[in-house]
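Example record

One chain of 271 residues, shown exactly as stored in the release files.
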Amino acid sequence: MKLSMWSSYYMDLSPEDAILELEKHGYGYTELSDEHAAVLMERGDPKTVGEAFCAFAKAHHVQIPQGHLPLKARITTPDGMTQVKAFLDLFAAIGIRYAVLHCDKLLDEPDLPLEERQRRNREALCELTDYIQNTNIVICLENLGKSSFTQSAEDLLFFIRQLGDSHLGICLDTGHLHLAACQSQREFILAAGQHLKALHLADNEGKTDQHMMPFGKGKVDFTEVFAALKEIGYEGIYNYELPGERKAPLAIRGYKLEYLRKMTEFLYESV
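Predicted structure tokens for this chain:
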């Protein structure tokens, strides 16, 4: 089991200092957040910067197999496409294999039919997968909440089947799925199957995306999640995305990481 915390658990620190904190608390994996990726992008050439950051992480025994593409980039627009491609260049230099992406919800056109939303996103994804054909990067489409047309595993599999491309996969966000209430965690995981390449593990009470740790006030059934992941033979990182837990002093965040490690090991071994 590969335990991971997304880097913006330490959003108030530099990307390098976030790596040092993760190393200190025994985390050998992380997802590079879009915030920290943006910091790296500001430093200059993505290839040079990415290779240097990769070397730093390796020197401190932290692997970065997963990264989040820009959250607010609208892939159906020229500016959004350019921004995502630049991030992909950075990810390639770092050695990130699984790049998490939100489809464009096209919220500025509320009356747009579903078929047109799918068509525009399909065309954008086709351009992006063409862009990474000579890499091993897999763009992992993330399930979103109730206002999205990408809530269920089937919604995401639509694009994979349409494009038939090995450079597309799925990222399960357990919190988003709980809010959407379109299918159970197990149903999503089994439907995604071998296309499931990335995880955002987080809990909530079912009303807002609180991004909490499991086994608090939240209602996501993480025993079900871990059992289903074992059932499909999931081999990726068990990555937590918990902005709801980072409003604490540095030392307290470290204690939370220690709890998460013990809790995750218990879950993984007991299901």
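Notes: The mean pLDDT is 97.
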